[in-house]
Amino acid sequence: MCLTCGCGEPADETGVAVETDTLLVEERLLAKNDRLAEHVRASLEARDITALNLMSSPGSGKTSLLERTVAELRGRRTVCVVEGDQETSFDADRIRSAGARAVQVNTGAGCHLDAHMVAHALDELAPAAQSLCLIENVGNLVCPALFDLGERAKIVVASVTEGDDKPLKYPHMFRAGTLILLNKIDLCPYVSFDVGRFIENARSVRPDVTVLPLSATRGDGLADWYGFLQSAVAS
Ligand code: MG
To answer: 66 C-alpha vs ligand 1 centroid, how far in Å?
Structure first.
């Protein structure tokens, strides 16, 4: 829960939200975050480090995709990972086991990563010049869309177990990402998910979005994902 994105909106003694004060605080916090994010971005770009911010609902398969990506790129590209979760270091442990350096950021009651958290994580990771830094945001389709982390691009990870109407229900998130990874397509025979309708819904929110169907477990579409990473690093 956070004040910045409105989900922790304060109320006065009558239970009525103090909307004006909340909006002012929200604007100030987002402006402060944006300034810090620009600093992070400049620092990364100066060393030609590509940072990508992966956002999704919980359980879309972000960590599984990152594990496989780290294993695939091992020996060819230096990769480090910033892991965001409210509690535990499970995901950072998984990434380290897959072969990459990782820092776990626990947000406690917070529902998103912000530029301040990422700046500290990057201080700890000290990524090498020309490396790839993958940021796994807290699983949440709302608040992470608001926060610039200094990344080069935002990527939305969706999955066929979530419903093909998600882009219409969470338009801010699906508008934020230049790329949507549609994960778990190996499960399509078992769920009522219409891939064509999902793509249509996603493009109604962001017409220029690229949708890449894949399966982090079976391997479908991963060559295209690695190709995207290659072009992102080279850009
Ligand atoms: Mg995870």
So the answer is: 9
Q: How far is the CA of 96 from the centre of ligand 1 (A)?
A: 13
The pLDDT of residue 45 is 96
Question: Residue 234 — very low, low, confident or very high, per pLDDT cuts 50/70/90?
Answer: confident
Gap from CA of 13 to ligand 1 centroid (Å): 38
Considering the domain boundaries, does residue 5 fall inside one?
no
In a domain, residue 10? The reply is no
Q: Read off the CATH number of the domain in which 213 is found.
A: 3.40.50.300
Residue at 8 is within a domain? no
Q: Does the pLDDT of residue 16 top 60, yes or no?
A: no
Q: Domain range for residue 65?
A: 22-234
pLDDT bracket for residue 13 (50, 70, 90): low
d(CA 86, CA 74): 28
Residue 51 lies in a domain: yes
What is the model's pTM? 0.92
pLDDT in tens, 86-119: 999 999 999 999 999 999 999 999 999 999 999 9
For ligand 1, the distance from its centroid to the CA atom of residue 114, given in whole angstroms, is 17
How many CB atoms lie under 10 A from the CB of residue 79? 26
158, 184 Cβ separation under 8 angstroms: no
* Cα–Cα dist 50/56, whole Å: 20
Q: How many domains does the chain have?
A: 1
